[in-house]
Amino acid sequence: MYEYLPLLIIGAVIGLFSVFFIVAYATMKNKKEAIGFDRHMKDSEIVKRLLVYAKPHWRTFLVVGIIMLFSIAYDITSPILMGNVVELLTSDFEMSTLYVYVAAYASILIVSLVCTYAQSIILQKLGQKILSKLREDTFVHIESLSHAQLNAIPVGKLVTRVANDTGAISMMFTNLLVNLAKNCFIIIGVFVAMLCLNYMLTLMVLCFVPFIVLFTVIFRKFSRRAYRKVKDCTTDINTYLSENLSGIKITQIFNREEKKLEEFSSKNVALGTAKQREIFVFGIFRPMVYMLYVSSVLCLLYLGGKGVIQSTEFLGQVITAGTLVSFYSFISTFFNPIQNLAEQFNRLQSAFASAEKIFTVLDMVPTVTDDEDAVELDEVKGDIEFKNVWFAYNEGEWVLRDVSFKVEAKQTVAFVGSTGSGKTTILSLICRNYDIQKGEILIDGINIRKI
Questions:
Q1: DSSP class of residue 366?
Q2: Residue 436 to residue 434: CA distance in whole angstroms
Q3: Which of 72, 147, 402, 403 is deepest in the core (most CB within 10 A)?
Q4: Which residues make Cβ contacts (< 8 Å) with residue 231, sequence separation at least 6?
């Protein structure tokens, strides 16, 4: 029992952290609605809609996938080569054999570097194409919205959608998705290589996988909440800047600089706090994964070292110095992609949060649209007629009540009235910036809804 005391201590420490995170997760889950954690769109729905932009470039993604397979060859084969070199040095040493191993190692490394470079260049170009298309679609859709809808959305929020949020999505296509796939292939390849090398040591390493999955699931919940808050605070501060910088002259005229500075500072502090929470969440998760990596290395060195020094078997399999060195490299190669997956998942949540906000804008249905049988006027004479028109910007607050008049072509008419009596509103309705609630507006005898 005393012989396995170090392993029991490691297991106790990992178990203690696991219990703590499970309790924290359960507490947060019970208060999900109170903290504003809910998502309006599922990840699967977001991915499905984003793939629409990637589908035209599937051939390029296929080429990148093939290049990626060559780029991961180094991660899988280099530990085996290192183990073989150690075995060579501890047996009958031949310089020619060492040269072969060194040449093979260098060749694999060069191929991996070249493939990684080519992959990065292709993805960056592809990402810019997708980014441009997404920005164009968002801008065109914003142009199709009615005046009432545009008045209800702060300009800064729309700027954030077109500029900032699309950039986060571009990062997903240029980096995240391919690297996620790459890391998954590395994990699978390393696992198969370890299994072939020594399946008992491989089972020992796999004992740590359930804890990795547990920490990842918990981190996913906390990170999503943190990213949503960061996105909301970024939108708030961009909206505030857009509105107040465009009206800075009014602020100066009324000497309200200090008041506006206080308001900006509060939003700035809120964004800083959200960023700190985001960093805090990730600052806990990655060290936890690193702790699992160190724990697995300690177990390997303890069990494998005893096997090499004492020439004993571990669960029926002999452990050599070369096997120990290979497994040490494999464990590092196995856990590094997992840590990278955590960081990439971190960014993926940011991209999903941005995509959700962009799709929220794209899902807005324009309230002013052409009828299916609308016609194109080849020539406009200029007859304008209002028939019993009722209109309100806000429900129940009528600006125009049963207004009727007719303006003949080439006739000049003046509208005179106090502020708020509806002069500008009438001009907006003629242009059909808004739709009326009751009545008809005719241009050359045709209802403007039919034009």
A1: P
A2: 7
A3: 72
A4: 165, 350, 353, 354, 357
Residue labelled with tokens 């194109």: 376
Residues 203 and 153 sit within 8 Å (Cβ to Cβ) = no
Token pair of 209, please?
């996988």
CA distance 408 to 451: 19
- DSSP element (H, E) containing 199: helix 199-206
Q: Is 392 helix (H, G, I), strand (E, B) or coil?
A: strand
| DSSP 8-state assignment for residue 444 | T
Q: How far apart are CA 144 and CA 190, in angstroms?
A: 52
Give me the sign of the Cα torsion angle 170, 171, 172, 175: positive
Beta bridge partners of 318: 313
The whole-number pLDDT of residue 404 equals: 93
Contact partners, residue 267, CB within 8 Å, separation at least 6: 233, 236, 237, 240
| Among 157, 158, 165, CA closest to 141 | 158
For residues 176 and 351, is the Cβ–Cβ distance under 8 A?
yes
Query: What's the full length of the chain, in residues?
Result: 451
Quote the radius of gyration of the chain (alpha carbons, Å): 32
Residue 367 CB neighbour total at 10 angstroms: 12
pLDDT tens for each residue of 120-144:
888 888 888 888 888 899 999 998 8
pLDDT tens column, 3-57: 566 667 777 777 787 787 777 777 765 444 433 334 577 778 888 888 888 888 8
